Amino acid sequence: MSKQAASMTFHAANADDTAAFIALRGKTRQNAISKERLAEVGITADSWAQMMRSGNLPGQICHSDGQLAGYCFGERTTGEIIVLALLPAFEGLGLGKTLLELVMAELRAQGHERLFLGCSSDPASRSYGFYRYLGWTATGEMDQYGDEVLEYLFSGGE
Q: Among 64, 52, 79, 78, which Cα is nearest to 24's?
């Protein structure tokens, strides 16, 4: 597939599309999580939609020529980036960075000066270098899933 995308659109996620978000999550290159595994930890299309409708889970999505290419969601009350997922064919185009920046801006507008997320501590993982390159730093903590907790601190001038 060409690295040139004909038509990329970014917009706020819609709670009616959570089944598509769950399907995409199982197709990512690294850290793919199946619909069944998500359900085991309490994440279903219905529970995801409910969190979105409550206003606690803002998200941004990207479509390429009408196909869902990726998404990012954050937790409004805590400032946690919950998930950033892309289909493998859309890696390396800057979509992940754009999606992350959109959600970060939304959480900052809610008053967060510090954001955090769980990330693989394996330097071979794509996410390991991705977040660090964008200014996220390790806190020295691990989350309940065994992932390293990274944080992003907004500077006063941003």
A: 64
Global pTM value: 0.90
**DSSP letters for 88-157:** GGGTTSSHHHHHHHHHHHHHHHTT-SEEEEEE---TTSHHHHHHHHTT-EEEEEE-TTSPEEEEEE--TT
pLDDT 10s digits, 55-103: 999 999 999 998 999 999 999 999 999 999 999 999 999 999 999 999 9
d(CA 3, CA 23): 23
In terms of C-beta density within 10 A (0-12 exposed, 13-18 middle, 19 or more buried), how is residue 109 classed? exposed
DSSP state of 52: H
Integer Cα distance of 26 and 37 in angstroms: 9
